[in-house]
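Sequence decides. Our protein:
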Amino acid sequence: MARKISWGVISVAKIGVEKVLPGMQGSALCSIDAIGSRDLGRAKQWAAKLGIKNAYGSYDEMLADPSIEAVYNPLPNELHVPLSIKALEAGKHVLCEKPISMDAEEAAQLAAASKRTGKIAAEAFMVRHHPQWKRAREIVRSGEIGRAQAIQTFFSYRLLDATNIRNIPPGGGGLYDIGCYAIVTARYIFEAEPTRVVATFDWDPSFKTDRLGGALVEFPGGRHLTFTIGTQTTPHQRVTIAGENGRVEVLIPFNAPIDRPTRIYVDNGQDLFGTGSRFEEFPICDQYGLQGDAFSTAILEGKPLEFGIDDAVKQMRVIDATFRSARSGNWEEI
């Protein structure tokens, strides 16, 4: 059995301590050995709760630990690139939360740092590691539903807390937080980069962040993604992939549960009643653990990730164009 990679985490962000780190602790190739926070007390509190052996009262202290090989960065979005570059320069590989940066130019700076230091950097889109998404792409590739033509995504939650980081500029808002999933999964399924986008957003007058948005994203060959996202809307998520001869629905596409199987729905389009349909079920798994193992495997084997830092730069170009369109009201080239 391969050895485990020694991981450290910078910050005690909720996504990290409640979802990502527990998932990685249950994985085959990840050992979570250190946690750093600007508040030593909080670092010690979470270290004790999660069984992490080392707690540090600053990010620099954690990055100076020579035993740590890789760092997970779930800091606020505007701190992703500065701290990830610092980690790379400290000799650590970096798995950074999405969105990896505030814009494509900043993401390119991280890509350059990764190449300069020879350390791996990647964006933490855990969904691409879940079996349900791999199977959805397999079905599309097989031609079972004919040529995939359109993807429709809805993703929403209701969050009115003004102190929550998701509602605080400059890194808050729906596109950065959840619209990015609609974009990345469409790029994953179509296996192509979009060419242009037109979008519309509603901005919260108090928070100054986008709270309801929608976009039409055009891909080569006349294919497109349409998505709606909301941060003050009833919680719901669903993805439909429509082809010439059928469709695939990913029923819980993003927050896949870790305590029960997941399912996708496949329909051959025979009629509107689902006569030619079926469900495919996937065993219980933790997509955060699978993501950690994929990253650790790349370190251990010295092989590139399927979706490395250059993919993250392409992802940010789409987000940049979507923001531009929401402000201009026009189609924007990517």
The longest helix spans residues 309-328.
